[in-house]
Every structure is written in structure tokens, then in C-alpha cells.
Amino acid sequence: MTPADDGRDERSDAEPPRKFYGRRRGRRLRPWREELYDHALPRHRLTLPEDPRQPLDPAALFDRPSSRLWIEVGFGGGEHLAAQAKARPDVDFIGFEPFVNGVASLLRYLEEERIGNVRIHPDDARPVLERLPEASVDRFFLLFADPWPKKRHHFRRFIQPESLAVLSRLLGDGAELRIASDDMGLVRWMLAHLTDHPDFDWQARRPADWRIRPADAIETRYEAKALAEGRKPAYLTFRRRPR
Known about the structure:
By secondary structure, the protein is of the alpha/beta class. It is built from eight helices and seven strands.
């Protein structure tokens, strides 16, 4: 694979902060999902301190002492996040997804499976990530993110120099960054940025290391759609190098 051009737009200081997501809603939620969203989300929602200068203590988010913290940004339908949380009740999870339909889908899993070690932030991840303590995250998932294929939209892609600086601060020594995508343009973009960063070590030593889904992961609905349409995803695992 070869790095892609970075293709970023020149934007004036007067423009609003960039967003990494597009629309917030898809099809109208069915009435029972609307009710689930309204009544279940408060039980699972991440609550930020009112003072924007106050750091976020992960241990204060859960009803027990926090051991390890795993994060998924853009959890889509929530099937991967729910499965990981159910399989690892000793780990605390934060999931980020601005898409209302995806949040409702995850809430169904959490309620039906009685999963209590997940907190949801249904909005932009950055204000939360910026307030978490240094080296507080043990694993970070970015799975099948919107590739934003048009060059003028590349600034919306999550992997950027600014976000890598945040991830470098958040990930503990040896912590994993797991990425998956079926869009090879986005894969090249992410590889170019991550392999150029001194704090991340790509774990691939042979083709199988990036062609085969990690053994403890599950197939997401986006991955299933890609495979059904003949696209072969790439699975990239990086580790945070020791400080």
C-alpha cells in the first residue's frame, strides 16, 4: 500500500470547527425505539462535569472502581461494542456515535443483555477525549468509519494529525489502536498518517495480520455488507510505543 495525498482543504479561521460526522438521523425511529432512546439513554449516557476545564475521571463514570478503559468511536449499530462489553465485564467502555439510529440500536443490546459497563456519548468524541487523563485508555476502536471519499471532505476523516496527538496522549504504553475499513483510499490515508507518527507501531508482520479480522472481534453489519458486495476489509492494529 502506498500513502495517499493528504488532500486537505485550505479553510479560513472564521469557519466553524470541523465535524467528523454528517447527518444525525436516518429513517424515523419506530415508536418502541423512540421510547427506548428516551428512557434508556439517561441510564447509559456519559455525563461530563459542568466545568469545561475539569478533567473527566473515568472511575466516576461507573458504579465500581475502574480497571481498564476501552473506547469505540463511531460504533455504528453497536453490535461490536455490545459484544466486547459483554465478553469483558471487567473492562469499562465508552462509545461515541452521533447517529440517533445507531444509539437506539446499541441501547437495545445493552437493555436486553443487561450490559452495564458501557457509557454512551451521542455526539462528537473530541470534547470528551480531550478531558480524559493521559494514558487512561487501554484499547481504542475505529471500525468502518465513513471514508469521506471526496477530496473536499477529507478534513472530516477521524485520523488527522490533531486527533493522533490526542490518541498519543490518551493511550497507555502498549495500548492498542484497532482500525478496520473496506475503503482502500481511507486505508492508505490512515496508514500514511499513522506510520509517519513516532508514537505508533504497526503490528503487521505478514499479510494475514491485516487481512484477517482479530480473533476476539465480531463481524459488524457494515463489514458484512462490504463482504457481500465483494470488498475485502483491511484490519490495522497499532500499539502505543513506550513513553
